[in-house]
Every structure is written in C-alpha cells, then in structure tokens.
User: Which sequence fits this backbone?
C-alpha cells in the first residue's frame, strides 16, 4: 500500500519502493523476528523520516561518505549471505554479529541436509548464468539493422535476465508440488491468503516467545516505552540507510536533474506510515527494481500502482501456492543478488585517490562485521565525522615570499579553507612561527579562501595582532570578505585590511617610512 502513497508524493519516476535485503535484515535484527514489533518499528521509523523531511534534515546523508557506504554495503552483503546460507545448508545459526553466526553454523555443520544444499547451490549457479544471459545483446551489423529473429532473441535474453527469480520460483515450486517432494525439502509453508485487515499497529505487546516469525503469548506485557528502548539506535540507523538506498536509485537515473532529498524523506515516511496500517513493514527504494523499471520503459511514478495491484492479486489468488516454494530457492535468490553488492571494485580507485578513504571504508566494513550492524554503522559514521573534523582543523597553509612591483618583499600566508574554532590554534601557531622566523619581513595574511569565521577566530586573531605588535612587525589582512569583517571588528586591536596590491604597497611604504625598509634579498630563508 505504500507504493500508492509514493506515487502521490514521490519525486523520482524510477524509484519502485518495496522491501530490500538491507532494510529487511536490520528490521529482523531490531524486531527479533516478531511481525508485530516489525510493524510498530516501521511506523516509528516512518514518523522519523517524515519529521526529518519536514524539518529539512536530508543533508544528513552528506555525512555518510562514499567509503563508509561502500564498506557498509559490502559488510551487509556478507551478513545477508551468512543469514541465508543456513537455509541452504539447513543448520542452526545464532548470534548478533557476522562472526557469531558463522561460529554457530560451523558447530552444527554436521546436520546439513544434502537435498536442500544441492537445490540451493544449483539455484545460485542457475541465477548467475541467467543474469549473464540477460546481459547478452546482439548488435546490428555495420550499416544495417537487426533482423526480426535477432530482435526477438534480444527480447528473450532480456526477459530471461529480468524474470530469472520468478522463473526459478515457479519451476521449483511446480516440481515440488506436482511430484509431492515436500518431505525432501524445507518449504515456505502456510501463507494466509486474502487482503490483510486494516488496523492501527499495536503500541504495546504481550510478552512473547518468537518462533518462525510468530509469537506465543507468555504473559509479560511489553509497554510502548519498553519497545522503544528495545528498538534503540535502529530507529535512527534504518531511516538513514533507507534514504541512502533510495537516493542511490534517484541519482543513478536522474540524468543530471536535481533530486529533492527532503521530498524523498517525506514520501518514504508517509509510505511506511500508511503501510503499517495494513500489517506492512519497512519499504524503500531498491536499485535492482529501479533498473528493471527503467529497462521496462517505466515513464512515471504510476508504475508503483501497477505493482501494488499485482501484489494484492497475488495475495488473494496465489498465496496458497506459496506453500510449495522451497526455502533453499528463496535463499539462493537473495544470495545471488547480494553477491553483486560487494564493493570490491572501489578498493583500487580509493587507494589511488586517497588512502585515508580506503582506511575508513575498511574500518566501516570491519565494524559492521564484528559488531551488531546498527552499532557498526554508527561507529563508521562517527569515525568519518572525526576525519572530517580533523581535516577542517588542519587546513593547508601556503607560505610564499612575494616581491612587489616597487621591489619590496613581504611574506604571504594563505590558508585554503575557512577559519573556525577547531583550526584556529593550528593556524595561529603556524602564523606566529612563520612571523618570528622572518621577523624583518611584513606579513600579508591572504583571506581569499576564508568563507567562514567565528568568535574563536576573532580571539585568536587578536592574540596574533598583539604578538606582531610586540615585535613591531607589520601584519596585513588581504581580501577579507565584507560579511566577515564584522567578526574582525569585534576585536579591540587595530588591524590593516587591503583589497588590492596597490593598497598593500601603500601600507608597506608607510611602514618603511617609519623605519622598517622591507628591502631584502631574494635569498631570504623561509
């Protein structure tokens, strides 16, 4: 039902909202497999998304860098692979992290089932082969067009690639059902048919013991505040990750057009809120669905309405046949999809461009594997923000000896970014050190690239001016933006401000007439 809402409020024609592997895994971990908790969790995260959109907080995703996103996506791909491999081997898997799950599976590996394992592994191979078949495209000869048979072959290749998951499910379910092989494979089992009841999600739940997604009442009431505490950081991680997935679709197919992040937050929030009144859980955009939609010729958001109708019809008329779908087949579909989400191709470009980015990406990857996923995401984002703060606190500062047209020399100090409180002590030490080392030279502080300052900047500038005054050394501020002059005017010490080289030369002449000639040789050591 959220698709219908997205059709009204969504801004991207290529975005098809629905469940995704990443959001589903996070929801499962937070809600611990309880569908009622999943519905309430989806409602709360939808409200958070709506509030974020209305308060224009979409810029938050700008703090999730490409390396963090690549590391997180790769870790999630391995975690999803791990969560599904147990359904192919049919072994027990417990734990909140990647390592804990693998340790528990290896302990139970002797109980694997050969029939499900063979079916699952062969399904993965078939899906990968069909994926490559879908990419086959017969090209027309030079100075010619494709024949009718060639166009038909291209259509068949494309259809096989796009519909490979549905084809595999249909074939395996038909074989199991027709040959009565339900004793040989783990099957999906009973799925309630019909339209789900329209109801307000439960804000408090009886204590439960969850088995296969269904809860047994054990008598202890869980209040709303208890559930809120149980959801924890997942309430913030899921909206952020869902927005990242959705914006990846929108930006991939935008073709240069701007994308309104806040509008997408609003539409996702409303879609998830509306969905929960029909027992739905987390939905957001998915790159695979967007690719299929674009390749299929989808022109507007109304494609979401067609998808909604198809899902409703399937729930009403086909649900009873889902009983025969082997779980190993479904696991193979998910594994074959997430294998291509491993971002190994980004390692080489990151290594060449900035090794610090590669370090952050590997840190995000490791944190998400070792710790619970939500904690790993927060740790990776926190490390990335620390790196950003470090970069802002350590601007590049160029120190040059400049000769004027009249033959006078001065020391030019140029920071490459804004001067705000994290960087001021570093900049102050650099200016004082350069000034003392070349105490016979006037110093020009080039403010061309300074676009922001604060109160701490003004206090540091005042200390710098006092130090230069104590040595009777000239300090000139060059090309300071007019809107930043107000910040400098809050200091008590007088300062010289110039906007042209003529102004600088005039100040140097005035200083020279007072006994500081500024005439030095070009061999002056900096």
Assistant:
């Amino acid at each position: 039902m959220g698709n219908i809402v997205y059709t009204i409020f969504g801004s991207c024609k290529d975005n098809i909202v629905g469940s995704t592997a990443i959001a589903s895994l996070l929801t499962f971990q937070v809600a611990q497999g309880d569908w009622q908790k999943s519905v309430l969790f989806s409602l709360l995260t939808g409200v958070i998304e709506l509030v974020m959109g209305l308060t224009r907080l979409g810029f938050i995703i700008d703090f999730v860098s490409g390396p963090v996103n690549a590391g997180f996506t790769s870790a999630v791909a391995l975690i999803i692979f791990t969560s599904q491999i147990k359904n192919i081997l049919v072994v027990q898997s417990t734990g909140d992290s990647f390592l804990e799950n693998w340790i528990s599976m290896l302990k139970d590996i002797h109980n694997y089932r050969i029939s499900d394992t063979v079916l699952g592994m062969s399904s993965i191979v078939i899906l990968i082969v069909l994926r490559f078949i879908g990419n086959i495209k017969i090209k027309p000869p030079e100075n010619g067009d494709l024949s009718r048979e060639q166009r038909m072959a291209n259509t068949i290749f494309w259809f096989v690639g796009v519909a490979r998951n549905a084809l595999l499910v249909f074939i395996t379910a038909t074989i199991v059902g027709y040959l009565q092989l339900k004793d040989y494979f783990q099957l999906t089992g009973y799925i309630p048919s019909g339209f789900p009841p329209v109801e307000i999600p439960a804000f408090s739940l009886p204590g439960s013991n969850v088995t296969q997604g269904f809860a047994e009442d054990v008598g202890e009431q869980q209040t709303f505040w208890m559930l809120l505490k149980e959801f924890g950081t997942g309430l913030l991680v899921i909206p952020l990750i869902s927005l990242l997935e959705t914006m990846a679709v929108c930006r991939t197919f935008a073709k240069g057009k701007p994308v309104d992040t806040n509008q997408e937050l609003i539409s996702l929030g409303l879609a998830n809120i509306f969905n929960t009144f029909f027992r739905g859980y987390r939905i957001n955009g998915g790159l695979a669905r967007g690719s299929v939609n674009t390749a299929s010729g989808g022109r507007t958001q109304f494609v979401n309405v067609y998808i909604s109708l198809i899902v409703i019809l399937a729930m009403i008329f086909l649900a009873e046949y889902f009983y025969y779908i082997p779980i190993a087949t479904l696991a193979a579909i998910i594994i074959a999809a997430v294998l291509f989400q491993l971002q190994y191709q980004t390692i080489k470009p990151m290594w060449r461009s900035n090794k610090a980015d590669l370090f952050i990406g590997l840190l995000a990857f490791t944190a998400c594997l070792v710790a619970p996923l939500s904690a790993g995401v927060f740790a990776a984002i926190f490390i990335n923000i620390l790196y950003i703060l470090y970069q802002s606190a350590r601007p590049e500062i160029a120190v040059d000896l400049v000769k004027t047209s009249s033959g006078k020399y001065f020391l030019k100090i140029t920071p490459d970014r804004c001067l705000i409180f994290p960087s001021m002590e570093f900049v102050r030490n650099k200016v004082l050190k350069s000034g003392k080392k070349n105490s016979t030279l006037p110093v020009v502080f080039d403010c061309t690239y300074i676009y922001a300052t604060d109160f701490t900047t003004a206090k540091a500038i005042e200390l710098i001016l006092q130090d230069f005054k104590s040595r009777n050394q000239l300090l000139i501020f060059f090309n300071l933006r007019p809107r930043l002059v107000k910040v400098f005017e809050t200091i008590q010490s007088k300062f010289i401000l110039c906007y042209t080289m003529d102004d600088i030369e005039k100040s140097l002449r005035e200083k020279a007439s007072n006994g500081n000639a500024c005439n030095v040789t070009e061999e002056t050591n900096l």
